[in-house]
Amino acid sequence: MTSHCATTANLPEGRLHALMARYVADKPGAFEPLHAALAPRVRARLGRLVHDAATVEDLLQLTFMRGHLARDRFESLPSAADRAVEGWYLSIARNVALDHLRESYRRQRRHTTVFARGDGASIGAPEPTQTPEEIELAKEQTREAARKLERALERLPATQREVVTLHKLEGLSMAEVADRLDVKQGAVRVRAHRAYKALAAILGAPMNGGMMAQPA
User: Across the chain, how many H-helices and E-strands are there?
Assistant: First the structure.
């Protein structure tokens, strides 16, 4: 069913932030218009990273679920209130997509190792129905996604890269990352925000002469 609510492109200035404020305050009926306004942009961001429509829809729901659980931590600047709301959800979507890609890569590596031993039944896996060529292509696509992520991380400043590595790859909380780096937690969050924004620009853009172009 098509929603009658406006997307972020045609909402009046400040309206998106007002919707978010109502949502954070647990006002009745606040989520539906917020979701309708943000879902197209969030879906597009996920689609740039994960090239499977059904998976994108699953990750879209996961993005809004994580946003719901973390909504009390949302903060914005008055000068960029609407952009802060949109950026916050796009950042969550990016993290959700990166988590999915990493887990897919790890799962593929585990299964590849098991099947290489001819022991697929040990993990309850059915015999592969794909051709060897299709299996190799899927493995290469997974490896390329992982390589793309690694190259993107290498392009970050060292202070941002270490935050992403500790937070997303090693699973430390922001407080634990701050303690590990001996910096304030607020500074860690700023680094993380900038890092994930930079990763979105790198991973979400097409190749152009060997470099990733900044998306519009």
Answer: 8, 2
Say how far apart CA 83 and CA 13 lie, in whole Å.
10
What does the mean pLDDT of the chain come to? 75
pLDDT tens by residue, 44-102 = 999 988 888 888 999 999 999 988 888 888 876 665 688 889 989 999 999 998 888 88
C-beta of residue 16 within 8 angstroms of C-beta of residue 39: no
- Look at the alpha carbons of 86, 89, 95, 100 in this order and tell me if their dihedral is positive or negative: negative
Question: For the segment 149-164, what is each residue's pLDDT rounded down to a tens digit?
Answer: 778 888 888 888 888 8
The total number of residues shown for the chain amounts to: 216
Query: Around Cβ 82, how many Cβ atoms within 10 Å?
Result: 20
Rounded distance between C-alpha atoms, residue 202 and residue 209, angstroms: 14
The Cα 145–Cα 166 span in angstroms is: 20
Report how far residue 135's alpha carbon sits from residue 155's, in angstroms, rounded to the nearest whole number: 31
Cβ burial 125-138 (10 Å sphere, 16+ → b, else e): eeeeeeeeeeeeee
Distance (Å, rounded) from C-alpha 205 to C-alpha 97?
15
Q: What are phi and psi of 49, to 5 degrees?
A: -100, -35
